[in-house]
């Protein structure tokens, strides 16, 4: 009888029986005792974590006449200690051999067996050694790879080497403390420019957690949020300089800036900054910029540039205006005063002429000075060319021999001036006697020498 694939369970007492044609039965007694022994491989402890200590124990219950030498196998191949911490320890008392791994690494995981050297049939069964370790080599992949257009979708996937396998994945965005999502994959639909940035995942099993490296999500979009700043801000004095700067949010960055002035179709300049030196009043107006990249173009809102005149020029213009207004007011008042004075003097002369009509003509009270008083503005303008530069008239009236101090009035006649003419003057002097010294009309007629009239009309040569 042949027993193949002999096992320890095959150990027993075996007997055989003979049967004859005459129904005879014969059995051996006692039978044959078969003791099946084997080589066993034991692992202590039964499971181990990376960095711990592992001991492999190989045993046999076979009765040998010598101390056996054991052979170790890993994944079907003969293996030997690879570090000084791994050593074979013979044990004559138990006829065993130990293989120690200290510390254990992931590379120690696999299928192990042992056997008795020189006895091909004395081999142990295989035992699988599992090394427990925290997540390692955690990484993130992005799909689709390359450029990601705004409005499309993207999926991030986290991978990690761990035993036992990772049971929890958490997603984070760099600079943001709160988690974005959980699960081995993280999908972003209808992606926006705000989703641009760096992401990473956290892998965790029952031993520890580990973060992956960062992966960049680059969302591509056209220009947006365009604005224009003015330096210096506020009022800009004529003759100074001003710089307009255009800012825009775009990915990839804006590669072309164009400047326009409102109501003007042709561009004023190009570049992110537009400088105007020695600004003038005609540079005032509203300006805007156009930002463009390969995904589109967009205009900014208009910004106003207000050019102010220099303060000295403004002060000069205001001063001249004030002086001119004051001169006009003074001249108007002077002409009004002259007109009123001329009218008053003419009325007094007419009254006196009426009083002295009955008296002798040998001593006239005053001469006719009607040519020297103002009649009307129109007449003065018409006769300006025929009049002399200066006119003086003095009239003295005396009704008493005792009167020494003459009474006089001065009238200045203002004529429209030309380059060759000057101002005309008229002076009238009257001396009215008091009640005590007043002469009667008859007495006045007897003393004609007291009554006189002088008219001076100096003439200046015209140039």
Please characterize this protein's 3D structure.
The protein has three helices and 36 strands. The chain is mainly β. The chain folds into four domains: 39-129, Immunoglobulin-like, CATH 2.60.40.10; 133-217, Immunoglobulins (Immunoglobulin-like); 226-309, Immunoglobulin-like, CATH 2.60.40; 338-353 and 362-454, no CATH class. The protein is rod-shaped. The relative contact order is 0.06.
Topology at a glance:
Layout lengths: L11 E3 L2 E3 L5 E3 L4 E3 L4 E6 L3 E2 L4 E7 L9 E5 L2 E2 L9 E4 L4 E6 L8 E7 L10 E3 L1 E13 L4 E2 L4 E10 L4 E6 L7 E2 L2 E4 L8 E8 L4 E3 L3 E3 L1 E13 L4 E2 L4 E10 L4 E6 L7 E2 L2 E4 L8 E9 L2 E4 L3 E3 L1 E2 L2 H45 L21 H6 L11 E3 L12 E5 L10 E5 L12 H6 L5 E3 L9
Parallel strand pairs: 6-14, 15-23, 24-32
Antiparallel strand pairs: 1-4, 2-3, 5-7, 7-11, 8-9, 8-12, 10-11, 12-13, 14-16, 16-19, 17-18, 17-20, 20-21, 20-22, 23-25, 25-28, 26-27, 26-29, 29-30, 29-31, 33-36, 34-35
Protein name: Ig-like domain-containing protein
Keywords: Membrane, Transmembrane, Transmembrane helix
Pfam families: Ig_2, Ig_3
What's the overall geometry? rod-shaped
Structural class: mainly beta
Strand content: 35-45%
Number of strands: 36
Any idea what the radius of gyration is?
Answer: 66 Å
End-to-end Cα distance: 168 Å
Q: Average pLDDT across residues?
A: 74
The helix tally amounts to 3
Task: Report the major sheet.
Answer: 5 strands, antiparallel
Total separate domains: 4
Helix content, binned percent: 10-25%
Question: Low-confidence parts, pLDDT < 50 over ≥5 residues?
Answer: 81-95, 358-463
Biased composition (Polar residues): 344-365
Transmembrane segments: 313-337
Keywords: Membrane, Transmembrane, Transmembrane helix
Pfam families: Ig_2, Ig_3
């Amino acid at each position: 009888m042949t027993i193949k694939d002999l096992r320890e369970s095959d150990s027993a007492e075996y007997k055989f029986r003979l049967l004859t044609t005459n129904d005879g039965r014969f059995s051996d007694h006692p039978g044959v005792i078969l003791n099946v022994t084997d080589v066993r491989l034991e692992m202590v402890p039964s499971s181990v974590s990376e960095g711990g200590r592992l001991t492999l124990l190989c045993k046999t219950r076979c009765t040998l006449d010598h101390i056996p030498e054991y052979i170790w196998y890993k994944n079907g191949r003969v293996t030997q200690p690879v570090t000084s911490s791994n050593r074979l320890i013979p044990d004559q008392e138990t006829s065993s051999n130990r293989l120690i791994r200290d510390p254990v690494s992931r590379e120690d995981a696999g299928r192990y067996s042992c056997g008795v050297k020189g006895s091909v049939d004395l081999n142990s069964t295989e035992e699988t050694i599992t090394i427990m370790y925290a997540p390692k080599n955690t990484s993130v992949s992005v799909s689709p790879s390359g450029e990601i257009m705004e409005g499309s979708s993207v999926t991030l996937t986290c991978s990690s080497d761990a035993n036992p396998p990772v049971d929890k994945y958490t997603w984070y965005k760099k600079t943001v403390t709160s988690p974005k999502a959980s699960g081995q994959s993280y999908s972003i639909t209808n992606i926006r420019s705000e989703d641009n940035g760096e992401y990473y995942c956290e892998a965790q099993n029952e031993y520890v957690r580990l973060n992956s490296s960062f992966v960049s999500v680059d969302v591509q979009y056209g220009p947006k949020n365009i604005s224009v700043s003015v330096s210096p801000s506020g009022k800009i004095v004529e003759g100074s300089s001003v710089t307009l700067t255009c800012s825009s949010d775009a990915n990839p960055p804006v590669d072309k800036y164009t400047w326009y002035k409102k109501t003007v179709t042709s561009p004023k300049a190009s570049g992110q900054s537009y400088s105007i030196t020695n600004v003038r009043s005609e540079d005032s107006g509203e300006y805007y910029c156009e930002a463009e990249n390969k995904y589109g173009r967009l205009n900014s809102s208009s910004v106003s540039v207000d050019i102010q005149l220099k303060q000295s020029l403004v002060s000069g213009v205001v001063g001249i205006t004030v002086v001119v207004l004051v001169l006009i007011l003074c001249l108007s008042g002077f002409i009004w005063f002259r007109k009123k004075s001329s009218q008053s003097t003419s009325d007094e002369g007419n009254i006196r002429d009426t009083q002295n009509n009955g008296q002798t003509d040998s001593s006239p009270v005053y001469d006719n000075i009607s040519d020297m008083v103002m009649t009307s503005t129109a007449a003065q303008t018409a006769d300006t060319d025929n009049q002399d530069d200066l006119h003086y008239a003095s009239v003295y009236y005396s009704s008493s021999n005792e009167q020494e101090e003459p009474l006089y009035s001065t009238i200045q006649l203002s004529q429209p001036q030309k380059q060759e003419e000057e101002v005309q003057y008229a002076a009238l002097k009257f001396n009215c006697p008091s009640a005590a010294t007043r002469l009667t009309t008859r007495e006045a007629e007897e003393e004609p020498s007291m009554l006189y009239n002088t008219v001076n009309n100096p003439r200046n040569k015209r140039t």
